[in-house]
Design a protein that fits this description.
The structure is a single chain. The protein is α+β, with helices and mostly antiparallel strands. The chain folds into 2 domains: 22-123 and 136-335 and 443-555, Up-down Bundle (Amino acid/polyamine transporter I); 342-433, no CATH class. It has helices spanning 2-15, 18-34, 38-42, 45-50, 65-76, 79-92, 95-120, 134-143, 147-188, 192-207, 210-239, 244-255, 270-285, 292-296, 304-311, 313-332, 437-447, 451-483, 488-501, 510-551, 564-569; strands spanning 342-343, 351-354, 357-359, 363-364, 378-388, 393-404, 410-414, 417-418, 424-425, 429-432. The strands form 2 sheets. Strands 1, 4, 5, 6, 7, 9 and 10 form a 7-stranded antiparallel beta sheet that branches. The protein has a 3-stranded antiparallel beta sheet with strand order 2-3-8, with no helix packed on it. Helix 6 (79-92) runs antiparallel to helix 13 (270-285), helix 7 (95-120) packs antiparallel against helix 15 (304-311) and helix 18 (451-483) runs antiparallel to helix 19 (488-501). The longest helix has 42 residues, at 147-188.
Length: 575
């Protein structure tokens, strides 16, 4: 397992090099200017389209605009909004939130562009079951020419699908299941694997019904789960209303300078705030990744740009609204830099286990503030040792696990810290490691005991189920492109089983979780962003032609908005 983690670290160092992040951000800026700030079109015209004013049952496609956006949002509004934001703040500090906002804004233009391309080149040979995405874009653009171009198009399309499958099974599936299992065990003592099995069954029952069932479930589930989560977050923020101005000041200051160590936070440089904010925002809203265009390609429309303007709402809803709510709760409650929950005895010293490796002797767990040790908790202490590039100082975390011995006494078994310098305990405080969604739940619980236990756990389950459902459809389209329809059913069974694998206990820390989920996302960016640069001009030509017709009055809403319940259910486009 150590070798696997080392591989993930090495791969992420390449995939998420600062140059890659600047490229993604630069691409968003270019298309923002090229579209003349399409963000504002999404927030105006996109809302009219979403309301059903342009829905037409005769148009090719399987689901209406609202269901297509809901299906895409059910993938983006997931544990990236609860667990991913928590990871960004715990590793990069409050400044990461600012960079999430930046990615969210420019990501709206990225999403508009990539969905325009997908809609222009989607495969509608079966009008009721269209296929779309980057793989079809490159195949059709390069396929219209000599044989070598056709082979190249197939090769690039296949490469995208391979990266798509890596993303779906890691970030879209295993990341979700791990967070659900971890939080459910933390609050209710239910073994991780039980949560994995339940998730696999629920997701399997939905995805076997195809895009029609996915669209209906997503359209009903997404508004419900967002409303519950927002209500709880607003309650917390109202109680801390007086602290909100100072919190925004901290976010802006930390975005452009190093954040000092405080409590459980060991410190963070501006570079790491930028890195984790960008990384988690891209993972959450998928801008430039190329996944959500697959869901949008199923929309009923004869106007490719019309659906892409709706798609531009995704990063706004996902990152600028939903992720921000989570971030504000974590910061305003002080959970990100929370105090220690126990204290080590004075005589505790680090010992060498091998040259350059250090640990602490196993010890009985000291009394814990607020509750007793139940066993299974992951903890850490902060030590001073060699320089730490991430924190911008010489502080590190030394992790451990609480286990209940045969006598019933809890004890802490410490891991190993690799350092050329002997580590010294900073303050002897023992911090409980709340990873991902567990940190968000802890923030809610700090305001009203039980709020995180019930509301966040419910939200985590709903968010995870919705994300896993949509990502299964993305993976299905990749399988269709690579191997044909006959392999879809076997893949669905494999996909569901991986939710169980993720809860077997091989992921133990926020860094491991970050590396696993970042692997697939990083791979997709390496394929999708070059495609956008190569054929983006075609999307821009279609976009401006559509807006010219809209602004000149040549194209208006086809009818009055249908009943809202018909839009949500999709009955307004039933034939």
């Amino acid at each position: 397992m150590n070798s696997f983690n080392s591989f993930l670290e090495a791969a992420n160092a390449i995939l998420w090099h600062n140059a890659v992040l600047f490229l993604v951000l630069g691409t968003g800026i270019v298309f923002t200017l090229w579209t003349r700030f399409s963000q504002f079109r999404s927030l105006t015209h996109g809302l009219h389209v979403l309301r059903g004013r342009y829905d037409n049952p005769a148009d090719p496609g399987a689901i209406n605009h609202f269901q297509a956006l809901s299906a895409a949002l059910s993938a983006t509004v997931g544990l990236g909004n609860i667990g991913g934001v928590a990871l960004a703040i715990s590793l990069g500090g409050p400044g990461a939130v600012f960079w999430m906002w930046v990615v969210g804004f420019f990501g709206m233009a990225l999403k508009t562009t990539e969905v325009t391309l997908a809609m222009l080149y989607r495969n509608t040979s079966d009008p009721d079951n269209p296929h779309g995405g980057t793989m079809w874009v490159v195949s059709k653009v390069l396929g219209d020419g000599p044989a070598w171009r056709q082979k190249l198009g197939r090769l690039v399309g296949s490469l995208f699908c391979i990266t798509l499958l890596v993303t779906t099974v890691t970030g879209g599936n295993m990341f979700q299941a791990w967070n659900v299992g971890n939080l459910t065990e933390l609050y209710f003592g239910v073994p991780d694997i039980v949560a994995g099995i339940v998730l696999a069954i629920i997701v399997g029952l939905v995805i076997l019904g195809g895009i029609h069932r996915i669209g209906r479930v997503a359209a009903a589930l997404v508004p419900f789960m967002i409303t519950i989560y927002f209500a709880a977050a607003i309650y917390v923020l109202v109680l801390h209303a007086g602290d909100i101005p100072a919190m925004f000041g901290l976010i802006f200051r930390s975005a452009f300078s190093a954040t000092e160590a405080s409590g459980a936070f060991i410190g963070g440089t501006m570079g790491y705030a930028f890195l984790y904010g960008m990384k988690r925002a891209i993972f959450s809203n998928e801008a430039g990744q190329g996944t959500s265009p697959i869901a949008h390609s199923a929309a009923k429309t004869s106007e490719p740009v019309r659906e892409s303007v709706v798609a531009g709402l995704e990063p706004f809803i996902d990152t600028i609204v939903t992720c921000t709510m989570t971030a504000l709760v974590i910061i305003v409650t002080g959970t990100w830099n929370r105090p220690a929950e126990a204290v080590l005895p004075d005589e505790m010293r680090a010992v060498a286990t091998a040259p350059g490796e250090w640990t602490l002797p196993e010890t009985d767990a000291p009394a814990r503030t607020g509750s007793a040790w139940s066993g299974g908790e992951r903890v850490f202490v902060i030590v001073r040792s060699a320089a730490n590039e991430q924190s911008g100082n010489d502080l590190h975390r030394l992790a451990g696990n609480v286990a209940i011995g045969a006598s019933g006494t809890p004890a802490i078994q410490w891991g190993v810290l690799q350092s050329a310098q002997e580590p010294e305990l900073l303050d002897r405080g023992i911090y409980v490691s709340y990873v991902g969604a567990a940190l968000t739940a802890r923030a809610f619980d700090s305001v009203l005991p039980g709020l995180g236990r019930w509301v966040v756990t419910l939200a985590v389950w709903l968010f995870a189920i919705s994300t896993m459902i949509s990502y299964s459809y993305y993976a299905e389209q990749g399988v269709v492109y690579l191997a044909g329809e006959r392999w879809v059913a076997p893949f669905k069974y494999l996909y569901c089983s991986l939710a169980i694998v993720a809860t077997l206990g091989f992921l133990k820390s926020d860094a491991q979780l970050d590396n696993l989920s970042g692997l697939g996302t990083g791979l997709m960016l390496f394929v999708n962003i070059p495609v956008m640069w190569f054929v983006g001009h075609r999307a821009m030509r279609a976009y401006h032609e559509y807006m010219a017709r809209l602004d000149s009055g040549q194209m208006g809403a086809g009818h009055a908005p249908p009943r809202l319940r018909d839009v949500i259910s999709g009955h307004d486009v039933d034939r």
